[in-house]
Write a structure and sequence with these properties.
Length: 335
């Protein structure tokens, strides 16, 4: 009973989310026959709940739909079907976050800042648009404090983005995202363009800021080591579907989906350099024409006939650990 009372409320509910992009028609096959309409199925029926104050991470290979989900949550893409609901959209919901809104930190620190604007203007713009400040002096003072929080100085407000390194630019992007005091922070591979040593600095900074500001975070990455470092819960994504989700301990100690197991097996083990890593063979299906059954069936070592024709059911091993697979016990037994 006490554990239920202490469980933080959900800040985000995503239900049956589909996002499709229409890419126009194929080339004509003849003068009398028009080309077929091409559709890219980026996200295919995602269900997701994120609790207040936690870091939920989505991991998967390039093209699986991670960034599409991030942009949909930030309001940059409109869902084709399904719903996205934040707690603050319902003022009557008990435990809803007092901070409101979602902000996003983008992958490329060299492209996310306007090169023609000084840093101070880039930081002040969201404050002006949201009417968080009364005048220019207040905005400048507050932006200087933001830069100091991310390890820079107030004097950097008058400098241009090209005068900073990649790690410093990403710190500026983090400061800009925090400017409006959001309740939900979306991080789309924020360290993938940085050197390894700088990655660690930025990740530690983000964790400290999350604790200081009480942020709820969605973290997107393809790096399992980074995911293990920053996450509370993890969703493993493949071809537009979250095929497994659970806590960090559940995912890394008892992976129950073949794709998750192969991702973890691919992590270099420096204490066991002689161990051979099992590769993920084959190519992922095209999101232009996703398969009728399990999307991972063609690459799965446990695949059976039913996997190629029928969508896998949802299995729950605990309240937080669930997977989409026809033969989860077979996979768990193989670990």
């Amino acid at each position: 009973m006490m554990s239920e009372m202490l469980t933080p409320p959900d800040i985000l509910h995503v239900r049956d989310l589909h996002i499709r992009f229409h890419l126009g028609r194929e080339k004509r096959t003849s003068l009398l026959r028009r080309g077929a309409m091409r559709t890219l199925h980026a996200v295919r029926g995602i269900n997701l709940d994120i609790r207040q104050g936690e870091t939920f991470s989505i991991v998967g290979e390039s093209g699986c739909g991670k960034s599409t989900i991030a942009r949909a949550l930030a309001g940059l893409y409109t869902p084709t079907a399904g719903s996205i609901h934040f707690a603050w959209q319902d003022a009557a919901q008990p435990g809803a976050a007092t901070q409101q809104g979602a902000q996003m930190i983008f992958q490329d620190p060299y492209a996310s800042l306007n090169p023609r604007w000084r840093v101070g203007r880039s930081l002040a713009e969201p404050l002006v648009l949201s009417k968080k400040v009364g005048n220019t002096r207040q905005a400048r003072e507050y932006c200087g404090q933001l830069l100091e929080q991310v390890g820079l100085s107030a004097g950097d407000l008058d400098r241009y983005p090209h005068e900073f390194s990649g790690g410093q630019r990403q710190r500026i992007s983090i400061a800009r995202a925090l400017a409006t005091q959001p309740g939900f922070l979306i991080c789309d591979e924020p360290t993938s363009a940085l050197d390894v040593s700088v990655q660690a600095q930025v990740l530690n900074l983000m964790r400290n800021l999350q604790k200081a500001h009480g942020l709820t975070t969605l973290f997107i990455s393809h790096n399992m080591a980074v995911i293990a470092h920053v996450s509370d819960r993890i969703g493993v994504m493949y071809l537009g579907r979250i095929v497994e989700q659970g806590t960090v301990e559940e995912i890394f100690s008892r992976p129950s989906h073949p794709y998750t197991r192969l991702l973890i097996a691919a992590i270099p083990q420096f204490d066991q350099p002689g161990n051979e890593r099992e590769p993920i063979v084959g190519e992922a299906p095209s999101p232009m024409n996703p398969p009728a059954g399990c999307a991972f069936a063609a690459r799965c070592p446990h695949s059976q006939t039913v996997c190629c024709s029928t969508e896998p059911p949802l299995h729950r091993f605990s309240h937080s650990h669930q997977i989409e697979c026809h033969f989860p016990e077979r996979v768990r037994a193989a670990i």
